[in-house]
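Module 6 notes. Inverse folding takes a fixed backbone as the condition and produces residue identities as the prediction. Think of it as a translation problem where the source language is geometry and the target language is the twenty amino acids. Below is one complete input and output pair. Work through it position by position during the lab.
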């Protein structure tokens, strides 16, 4: 489901070369269901025309305080009163400096000063301008005054230099705006998430792993961050970028084996919630070969089957260990076990029965079941949430949508 339905966003555009990306930004915001009202500075119109923005948004673009189309000629008041947020992208060094001082010499700056809604600023400028003390002072003051900074990113700049100051890509900006509007159900909570598979080495080139893309666990880490939590993501080997990476707020630890994941988790137990989403290999190979096992080597050839005999040992059950720790650590709400543990059961059949049994066996309050292997690696999933007294089915939807619903359900239990 689009995340910005019924949201009215004023998209402010100031005069930087990144303004050409504002057209795509407006389109993506609208795709998420937002109504986008564009306001442009005079300099912005040197880079992109109001006609382009008007054609994309379907609304007249405003560029002047003296625009007679607005009732009472009070554009700065009228426009901001009905908005859910003002998003300025790109926000130039000049604009940030003006806003930090409360200057209001055109419609966009006046609107920001007269607003009664949140202000999100997406800086874009040359790296020296970004690093200049004057700009950094402006940014610090604006953040202290309650504005939200999105970015900037680092990379090649229009001027040919490389460094910090690039505007975030439109899709990243939209992700941050959607995150900004999520209810802060886990404000002040610490959340630990394991995600992805583990990899158990057989020799330096071979190993055993589980089918897991990590997408569901990463979506839960993102949804927890969006809900205001402090998030630690412990990830097995998977190629996914850290969610909302440009915000840099998820602390990520990469591990390979089940043992490594166990060690990383047991060092991070000072948390309120534990989502055990990782598909941990149940077995490991205790003494992996130091050299590649050759197909025709003596160890292999001596066996009748001409295949190596591999001995497995059990991996620790991470979730069960955390649940035991939590039971002994009754520092949660009303002296309940802390962290509150949520397990995941990927099953190929009898989902409800297996997931319920697993919940009891592991000694956790909540188990979330999903039917594999069709959903492995997919962007969609469907879940069954099972606790002691009830079960709730979350129908097929994008993993981030399901993660947000799960966070909502879990937050209720913590309240
Ligand atoms: N889990 C874990 N450590 C393990 C195995 C599983 O923490 N060594 C966690 C998973 O992260 C998941 C839950 O336990 O939250 C259930 O995992 P699953 O693989 O479905 O269950 P198993 O206990 O391995 O049981 P089985 O393989 O028999 O289905």
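Target side of the pair, the amino acids:
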């Amino acid at each position: 489901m689009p995340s910005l339905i019924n949201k009215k966003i004023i998209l402010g555009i100031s005069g930087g070369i990144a303004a050409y990306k504002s057209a795509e930004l407006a389109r993506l915001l609208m795709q998420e269901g937002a109504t986008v009202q564009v306001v442009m500075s005079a300099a912005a119109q040197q880079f992109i025309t109001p006609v382009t923005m008007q054609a994309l948004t379907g609304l007249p673009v405003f560029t002047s305080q003296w625009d007679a189309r607005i009732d009472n000629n009070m554009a700065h008041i009228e426009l901001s009163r009905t908005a859910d947020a003002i998003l300025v992208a790109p926000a130039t060094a000049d604009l940030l400096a003006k806003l930090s001082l409360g200057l209001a010499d055109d419609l966009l700056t006046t609107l920001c000063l007269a607003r009664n809604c949140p202000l999100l600023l997406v800086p874009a400028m040359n790296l020296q301008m970004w690093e200049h003390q004057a700009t950094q002072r402006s940014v610090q003051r604006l953040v202290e005054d309650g504005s939200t900074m999105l970015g900037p990113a680092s990379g090649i700049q229009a001027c040919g230099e490389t460094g910090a100051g690039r505007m975030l890509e439109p899709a990243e900006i939209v992700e941050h705006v959607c995150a900004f509007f999520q209810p802060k159900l886990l404000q002040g909570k610490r959340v630990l998430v394991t995600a992805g598979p583990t990899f158990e080495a057989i020799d330096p080139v071979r190993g055993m792993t589980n089918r897991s893309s990590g997408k569901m666990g990463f979506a839960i880490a993102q949804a927890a961050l969006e809900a205001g939590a402090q998030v630690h993501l412990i990830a097995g080997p998977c190629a996914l970028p850290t969610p909302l990476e440009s915000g840099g707020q998820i602390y990520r630890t990469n591990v390979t084996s089940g043992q490594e994941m166990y060690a990383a988790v047991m060092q991070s137990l000072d948390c309120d919630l534990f989502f055990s989403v990782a598909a941990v290999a149940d077995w490991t190979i205790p003494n992996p070969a130091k050299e590649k096992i050759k197909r025709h080597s003596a160890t292999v050839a001596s066996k009748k089957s001409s295949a190596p005999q591999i001995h497995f040992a059990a991996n620790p059950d991470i979730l069960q260990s955390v649940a035991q720790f939590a039971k002994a650590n009754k520092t949660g709400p009303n002296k309940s076990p802390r962290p509150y543990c949520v397990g995941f059961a990927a099953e190929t059949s009898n989902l409800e029965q297996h997931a319920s049994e697993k919940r009891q066996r592991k000694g956790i309050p909540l188990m979330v079941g999903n039917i594999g292997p069709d959903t492995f690696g997919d962007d969609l999933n469907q879940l069954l949430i099972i606790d002691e007294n009830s079960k709730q089915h979350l129908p097929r939807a994008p993993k981030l949508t399901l993660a947000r619903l799960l966070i909502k359900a879990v937050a209720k239990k913590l309240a």
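Reference fact for the lab report: The mean pLDDT is 93.
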